[in-house]
Amino acid sequence: MSSVTQENLxxxxxxxxxxxxxxxxxxxxTQILSAGGQEAVQMKDLAQRAxxxxxxxxxxxxxxxxxxxxxxxxxxQAAWLLVSAEEPAxxxxxxxxxxxxxxxxxxxxxxxxxxxALAAALTGGGRSYSSIIEAVEHTHWQVIRHVAAGxxxxxxxxxxxxxxxxxxxxxxxxxWLAGTYSAADAEAVIEIGCQLLELPDAVIDExxxxxxxxxxxxxxx
Length: 221
Hints:
There is one protein chain. With 221 residues, the protein is mainly alpha-helical. The protein folds into two domains: 14-62, Arc Repressor Mutant, subunit A (Orthogonal Bundle), CATH 1.10.10; 77-212, Tetracycline Repressor, domain 2, CATH 1.10.357. 69% of the residues lie in helices and 0% in strands. It has ten helices and no strands. It has helices at 16-36, 43-50, 54-60, 64-83, 93-109, 112-124, 130-149, 156-178, 183-194, 201-211. It starts with 15 loop residues before the first helix and ends in a 10-residue tail after the last helix. The model has no long low-confidence stretch (mean pLDDT 90). Residues 19-79 form the HTH tetR-type domain. Keywords: DNA-binding. Pfam families: TetR_C_20, TetR_N.
């Protein structure tokens, strides 16, 4: 597997023309992944579809693994632009977060090949991909935290629990992809996980100290 090293750090688009090329690659890669999954992505074919040279493709995306992470990042960036422009609906943190994660999961169901490829890229990326993985996690966290806050603020305890709920939702998606959960099972687990957000702050502190005294809960950004 190729890796990103100091010598082949990906270029960053700096002009509108470069950004347009970058966006065409992301769009073409998304189409290929949607139709055939990760195995269908061939870099030479992708370059032709996107209308860029192979050298240009590798300048921005030094490996297929990096490309998949870039596709995932672009999707979370689009989600952030969408949710940040509106006030999330829902009367409570639990309501808002449950609605968001279930909406996110239903979108994932609509294209299982794409979801599987991007989930594998995120869980399979090693230290060589730490920078873009951090960007993916940071952007996703921005989306979730904005939805949870609903125009207000979250307590420190709520943010800690939100990390736990995020991981519950991610695990439910992975089990659905593996075939061990039905879609209904996954949504039920997400809903149950979101009930944790109704716990009082004092109870959250007590329970986290009891079950995971040595764990530091650090939001991604």
